[in-house]
Task: inverse folding
């Protein structure tokens, strides 16, 4: 198996170079179309020659193919991660290699999130009472969903688009869902013990409730026709992107993927750059028991893409070396709850105000919670 992985990884430089060109051209065309009317006119003239717009059959086929590819990449990434952990090796710190590695990590969760969003929009269209509308119910639902932040953002937006779930419940769901799920809880308990697991659960629930109320207070938008329902939308939320639950799942999934692809590409490129120049291994070299180390834990965790228990594997040797519990939880909250890729998705869907509030709460909230845990943990021990 290791020989196969090594053979695949030997092609990363070539694949990464091609991806960089594809990503770059896509983003340049996308940006110029938004900013330059002449480019948009040229694009409209070119569409028929490129076979656009796509037929319904072509869109359905693309959704199926991308979904199957995402499953394959997730399986490969799981095997690859295990092999890397066992051999204590890592991909060469070359931007092209890391771009491929980061794309493999991000793409499955992005696609899963878009497909799940389409599924939930369809279910809620038919059975409106399936999704809980309280923050507690949304948090419990989030705790059972095995998805990461790149999937949580589009999924949460599909809940908001129903216009029946309060903004505070949606935000609470979005905060909790990447940090808690049955696998991560059992894995964390088995590797790091009950104390870490308890603090992980308590901390993210606390942060979820705080984020829900703060975002709704400062960025919520109340429908004047039904003020008693509370804020069912946010200021700056996407008006051009909505999911119609009456449409087929594949159609809604394709629409959401098309709309968000440029943003996920921006996040992927930034994430790859950060991974190259800010590798996770420096965490062990620079974290300390003081306040600066706690800030560093949150600052390093915030841009990283950590998922499926990767933070637990990272924290295990660090905690054995004496990393305080508060530092570990701060890294867990910032690293799992949000990353560069999911921040890029927040802007077009939830608007600038809600995005900055959520990002700030993850950073400063994880620091505050880490400080509190470091103060309380010795009393419990």
Result:
């Amino acid at each position: 198996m290791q020989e196969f992985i090594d053979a695949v990884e030997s092609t990363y430089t070539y694949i990464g170079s091609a991806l960089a060109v594809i990503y770059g051209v896509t983003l340049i065309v996308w940006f110029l179309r938004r900013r330059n009317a002449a480019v948009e006119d040229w694009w409209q003239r070119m569409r028929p020659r490129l076979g656009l717009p796509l037929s319904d059959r072509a869109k359905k086929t693309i959704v199926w193919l991308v979904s199957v590819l995402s499953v394959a990449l997730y399986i490969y990434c799981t095997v690859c991660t295990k092999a890397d952990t066992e051999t204590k090796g890592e991909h060469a710190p070359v931007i092209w290699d890391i771009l491929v590695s980061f794309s493999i990590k991000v793409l499955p969760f992005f696609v899963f999130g878009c497909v799940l969003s389409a599924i939930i929009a369809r279910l809620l269209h038919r059975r409106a009472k399936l999704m809980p509308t309280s923050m507690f119910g949304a948090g419990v639902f989030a705790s059972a969903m095995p998805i990461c932040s790149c999937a949580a953002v589009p999924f949460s937006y599909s809940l908001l688009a129903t216009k029946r779930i309060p903004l505070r419940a949606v935000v609470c769901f979005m905060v909790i869902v990447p940090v808690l799920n049955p696998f991560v809880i059992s894995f964390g308990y088995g590797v790091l013990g009950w104390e870490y697991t308890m603090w992980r659960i308590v901390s993210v629930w606390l942060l979820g409730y705080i984020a829900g109320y703060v975002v709704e207070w400062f960025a919520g938008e109340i429908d004047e026709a039904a003020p008693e329902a509370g804020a069912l939308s946010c200021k700056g939320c996407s008006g051009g992107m909505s999911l119609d639950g009456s449409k087929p799942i594949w159609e809604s999934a394709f629409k959401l993927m098309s709309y968000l692809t440029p943003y996920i590409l921006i996040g992927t490129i930034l994430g790859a750059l950060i991974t190259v120049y800010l590798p996770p291994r420096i965490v062990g070299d620079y974290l300390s028991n003081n306040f600066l180390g706690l800030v560093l834990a949150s600052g390093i965790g915030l841009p990283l893409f950590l998922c499926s228990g990767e933070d637990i594997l990272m924290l295990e040797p660090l905690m054995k070396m004496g990393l305080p519990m508060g530092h570990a939880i701060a890294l867990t909250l910032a690293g799992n709850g949000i990353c560069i890729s999911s921040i890029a998705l927040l802007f077009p869907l939830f608007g600038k105000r809600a995005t900055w509030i959520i990002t700030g709460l993850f950073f400063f909230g994880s620091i505050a919670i880490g400080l509190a845990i470091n103060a309380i943990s010795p009393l419990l021990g």
User: Anything to note?
Assistant: Confidence is low (pLDDT under 50) at residues 81-92. The radius of gyration is 21 Å.
